Amino acid sequence: MNRKQFLLSSASSAAIAFAPAITFGKSVDQKPPALNLALASYTLRTLKLDDVIKTLIRLGIKAVAFKSMHMPLEASAEDLKAIGDKVRAAGIDLYGAGVIYMKTQQEVENAFVYASAAGLKTIVGVPNHDFLPLVNDLVKKHNIKLAIHNHGPGDDLYHSPNDVWAKIKDLDKRIGLCIDVGHVIRIKEDPIPMIAKYKDRLYDLHIKDVNKSEEDGTPVEFGRGVIDIPGIIKALKKINYSNYVAIEYEKDGDDPIPGLAESVGYLRGIIKTS
Questions:
Q1: Is-contact 190 181, C-beta < 8 A?
Q2: Neighbouring residues of 86: CB distance < 8 A, sequence distance ≥ 6
Q3: pTM of the complete model beyond 0.85
Q4: Is residue 15 part of a domain?
């Protein structure tokens, strides 16, 4: 569905919504499955923490996964708790953090201590293959999920979600995937069947749009690129996906809010009409 078709569809949906209701026999609940929107805070990487909170409130986004510029990896346990308390007091679920790279044993251990201190449910991370046994032990110890993030072109560890699955399928079920649909498209794969294939271990999803399905594809506002966002939303609804759909709008790092707001509005429209 292109933008013109989407706008026509939205207009038609609005007209139907105001038409008189006609029911025959038992009423049918047509409410679509709820999808929980969140923000990957790298989107707002040039903003301070207080401005991130204000932006989330302004856009009606009630969950966030923090990147380290908003919740430093080296912060003390007291500071991490204070950050978590501040965000949650604003009515926002600080559910996760990432992407966190884990290239040494110390970095793996620190990531779980950090997440525990901040009260997180999920780490979005990239552990080196050698440390997956340690990760397996730590998800059990802390009862925190690890969602491994694919980075597409140039990523020798987890080029594709298929590479993630090959490494984790026999590990603790708290180790799963964060599918980044933009990076999947840039390696000319399709994220839609992956959503169904890995549904039982899909713990986060980074949603975005890019201008072309090539290695050098770059971020654009949602609906202006080549990613089948309506298809992704339908796939998530079909599996009754209950974890977060994290918006990662990477364009315009110095002035992200206009493009982010456009993308949030587009995505909400797709969710309502898909």
A1: no
A2: 49, 53
A3: yes
A4: no
Q: What does the angle CA 70 – CA 229 – CA 259 come to, to the nearest 5 degrees?
A: 45
Say if 16 falls within a structural domain: no
Number of domains in the chain: 1
Burial pattern 262-274, b for ≥16 Cβ within 10 A else e, equals ebbebbebbbebb
Task: Tell me, yes or no, whether 135 lies in a domain.
Answer: yes
- Our separate counts of H helices and E strands in the chain read 10, 10
* Residue position matching structure tokens 């939303």: 233
Q: Any idea what the CATH number is for the domain that residue 221 is in?
A: 3.20.20.150
Note down pLDDT in tens along the chain; length 274 residues. 555 454 434 444 433 333 333 333 333 445 545 899 999 999 999 999 999 999 999 999 999 999 999 999 999 999 999 999 999 999 999 999 999 999 999 999 999 999 999 999 999 999 999 999 999 999 999 999 999 999 999 999 999 999 999 999 999 999 999 999 999 999 999 999 999 999 999 999 999 999 999 999 999 999 999 999 999 999 999 999 999 999 999 999 999 999 999 999 999 999 999 8
Q: Is there a domain that residue 20 lies in?
A: no
Structural domain of 261: 33-273
Question: Which amino acid does the sequence have at 32?
Answer: P
DSSP, collapsed to helix, strand or coil, labels residue 102 as strand
